[in-house]
Amino acid sequence: KGIVENGHEKEEEINIQQGISIEKCVDLLLKDNIINVCNDYWLNTLRYNTKLQLTASWFTSVTKGQSTDWHKHANSILSGIFYFGDHFSKLSYRNFDKGHSYDIEPIEHNIYNSDNWHMTPSKGLITLFPSEVYHRIQDTDLKRTSLAFNFIPTGTYGPGDSVVSIKTEEHHEY
Q1: pTM of the model
Q2: 125 in helix, strand or coil?
Q3: How far apart are CA 71 and CA 74, in angstroms?
Q4: Which of helix, strand or coil describes residue 20?
Q5: Per residue of the chain (174 residues), what is the pLDDT tens digit?
Q6: 3-class state of residue 23 by DSSP
């Protein structure tokens, strides 16, 4: 209602053919955008010739003074977080298994010799990381909200007697 045509306001009824609510449309668009971003990263950055399938997603809400414990995501290969709120506390990543038992302190830390990293996200950012990487939300001084998600690879992959074939589910719930 309230469409302006030739300088005059006119009432027009909007028909939603399949009964999709505005909220459901937003959910589907967000889901499709996240899936597209992750598959683009998987193919064009990591250069894997398989597709990804979204297996889980959930909202996180951390209030003032809260944080999370170190954790990783099982039964997935790629995890990510979409930041949509107005406040974001730091996210920390950590490698608890350096692959060797020597504790040698580098002259200067860099991406190749560090075992932990910290980032402060910004609104609209999607951060992606291998699901086996430990991570945690650091203490927040204001409410922090985000959307987390996990993916598995689909298609046929693996060498010799380790070949697997995982079919892609392609459906939308309207």
Answers
A1: 0.76
A2: coil
A3: 10
A4: coil
A5: 333 344 444 444 433 445 555 556 556 778 889 999 999 999 999 999 999 999 999 888 888 888 889 999 999 999 999 988 888 889 999 988 766 677 788 899 887 888 888 999 999 899 999 999 999 999 888 888 889 999 999 999 999 999 999 987 665 443
A6: helix
